[in-house]
Amino acid sequence: MNKTISSDNHSRHRCEWASTAPDFPHYHDNEWGFPVDNDQRLFEKLCLETFQSGLSWRTILSKRENFRAAFKGFDFHKVALFDEKEITELLNNQGIIRNKRKILAVINNAKRAIEMIGKEGSLAAFIWRYEPDENTLPPPETQTTCAESIALSKELKKRGWQFVGPTTIYAFMQSMGLINDHAKDCFMREKIDLARKGFVRP
């Protein structure tokens, strides 16, 4: 059952997960599922999904501003230049997840992002090639991977990216609008459908 909320004297339904943490309603209503074609935002979300691996999104979202400050706004050109000095600073930064493997993966992936832009033109142009056909997807909130997330994960790994498993990539696709996984009775589902219809694919 989805959470019912009241606004402007009428009831609305949100996806059930949106009621499980204080920060989730705003994130659900204003970010999750809207299509994104900005390379820096796409890279940021891939990085945050890396840090979420084995943890909850609530933990990551609560620290997102700390992550942005620590990783120079997730400017991959800057992150790619991080060396031992920055790595040590990150490992001592109590505002983020201090996991050395994940930190090194983000630095590695920044380098891979620059390579990809050189070959493909943009991260967005490459990633949106893997947008699933909505007609082939099962009902919302019923799966954690799909054929396209598996294929994109495989290709990213082939190109040297790290911490980009199929489940991580599926969560990335949900949040960046490649999939509309809002519940059928969620008031945001129609808004995301409209946003996706008006979105110009890169």
Give the arrangement of secondary structure elements.
Layout: E1 3-7, E2 10-14, H1 24-30, H2 39-52, H3 57-62, H4 64-70, H5 76-79, H6 84-91, H7 100-120, H8 123-127, H9 147-158, H10 166-175, H11 188-198
Antiparallel strand pairs: 1-2
Helix pairs in contact: 2-7, 2-10, 9-10
Organism: Marinomonas pontica
Protein name: DNA-3-methyladenine glycosylase I
Please indicate the percent range of residues in DSSP E strands (runs of 2 or more): under 5%
Helical element count? 11
CATH topology: Endonuclease III, domain 1
Question: What is the strand arrangement across the widest sheet?
Answer: 1-2
Superfamily at the CATH H level? Hypothetical protein, domain 2
Largest sheet: 2 strands, antiparallel
> Could you tell me how far the N terminus lies from the C terminus, measured between alpha carbons in angstroms?
36 Å
Helix/sheet category:
mainly alpha
CATH class: Mainly Alpha
Write down the Rg: 17 Å
Shape descriptor reads globular
Count all strands and give the number.
Answer: 2
> What value does the average pLDDT take?
93
What's the order of the H and E elements?
A: EEHHHHHHHHHHH
What's the CATH architecture name?
A: Orthogonal Bundle
Helix content: 40-55%
Total domain count: 1
Low-pLDDT segments, ≥5 res: 1-10
Protein name: DNA-3-methyladenine glycosylase I
Pfam families: Adenine_glyco
Explain how this protein is built:
InterPro entries: Adenine_glyco, DNA-3mA_glycosylase, DNA_glycosylase. It comes from Marinomonas pontica. This is DNA-3-methyladenine glycosylase I. Pfam families: Adenine_glyco. The chain has one domain (34-198): Hypothetical protein, domain 2 (Endonuclease III, domain 1, Orthogonal Bundle), CATH 1.10.340.30. It has eleven helices and two strands. It has helices at residues 24-30, 39-52, 57-62, 64-70, 76-79, 84-91, 100-120, 123-127, 147-158, 166-175, 188-198, and strands at 3-7, 10-14. It has a two-stranded antiparallel ribbon. Strand 1 and strand 2 (10-14) form a beta hairpin. The longest helix has 21 residues, at 100-120.
